[in-house]
C-alpha cells in the first residue's frame, strides 16, 4: 500500500481510517505500523480489562522508535466522537480530559496514532485518588539486570505474603520488572505510597548490597532500585501487555512466579524477554496471567 493511502475499516460497528500501515516503526525488526495494530487487535481480550475506566497517558512514536516521541495526557481533540474520555482533576494540577481505552475500536484508534506504549493510571477515572493497585517498579542499575530484579521480586513477594497480600510479577518490557499488588478496595495514595516506601526500606536494610530505596542514581550501580514513588496519582507505570519502544517489539509481560524463580537459577536475562509474537502465544496457552490484578480484592494492612 502506498504510504499516504488510507484504509477504511469497521471495528465492532465503528468506522476507522487507518493510515501508513507499511510504515516501519521498529527499523531493526522491520516491524510496521500495520503489525502494531494487528498485535493490539489480537491482544485486546487480555489487555482491555486492565485499561477500562483508567485515565490513559499516550506515548506516541509517529516516526518510529528511533525518532522522537511525546507524551499526551490530554485526549486529542480530533478523536472520534465514540472514544470515551474523562475529566480528571489531580491534586495541584489543572483538570485534564484523559482518553479512556474501554473497547477494541479505541485500542485500534490509539495504535493508528502510533501510541506504542500504554500508560494507564493505577486508579480509575471515577475515583482518581483511590488506587486499585499497589505497584513496585524494580529498576536495575548496570551491571545488574532483570536477574537481580527477580531476586528482589522473590524477597518482596515473601514480605507481602507475610502481610497477607498476594502479588503478581511482570516484565517491564525493557530492563526491569514490576510487582503489582491488587487492592480493588477503598484506599488512597496517602496510604499506598508510604507503605511501598517502608517495604522498600525494609528490603534495603535486609539486602543492602542488592537493594536501594533512594532515588539518587549514584547509589544504584549494580543494585535494584525499588521504586515506591510510582504510587502517586500524577505518575503512571507502563501497562501490562503494552509494547515498548526498544529495538525489538518487546512487551510488558505477565510472569509466573515459577518463571521468576527459574531465572534466578539460569542467570540468563534473555529468558524474560518477550516479543509481541511470544506474548500472543503465551496468552493462547495460559490465558491472562494478570487477570487477578483486575479483580482480586485485598486490604492494605496499616503501618506500625
List keywords for this structure.
single chain; 304 residues; alpha+beta; five-stranded mixed sheet; three-stranded antiparallel sheet; globular
Explained architecture:
- With 304 residues, the chain is of the alpha+beta class.
- 28% of the residues lie in helices and 20% in strands.
- It is built from 7 helices and 14 strands.
- It has helices spanning 33-47, 104-112, 146-162, 189-206, 257-266, 276-286, 291-295, and strands spanning 6-11, 14-19, 24-26, 31-32, 56-60, 70-72, 85-88, 96-99, 117-120, 133-140, 168-171, 177-182, 211-212, 224-227.
- It has a 5-stranded mixed β-sheet. A 3-stranded antiparallel β-sheet has the order 6-5-9, with no helix packed on it. Strands 1-2 form a two-stranded antiparallel sheet.
- A hairpin with a 2-residue loop joins strand 1 (6-11) and strand 2 (14-19).
- Helix 1 runs antiparallel to helix 2, helix 1 packs parallel to helix 6 (276-286) and helix 3 (146-162) crosses helix 5.
- The radius of gyration is 19 Å and the shape is globular.
- The model has no long low-confidence stretch (mean pLDDT 96).
Derived from helix and strand composition plus strand pairing, the structural class reads alpha+beta
Q: Which regions have little confidence, pLDDT < 50, spanning 5+ residues?
A: none
Mean pLDDT: 96
Radius of gyration: 19 Å
Helix content: 25-40%
Q: Tell the overall outline.
A: globular
**Quaternary state of the chains:** single chain
List the secondary-structure elements in sequence, H or E: EEEEHEEEEHEEHEEHEEHHH
Q: Could you give a short account of the major beta sheet?
A: 5 strands, mixed
Q: What separation lies between the terminal Cα atoms?
A: 63 Å
Strand content: 15-25%
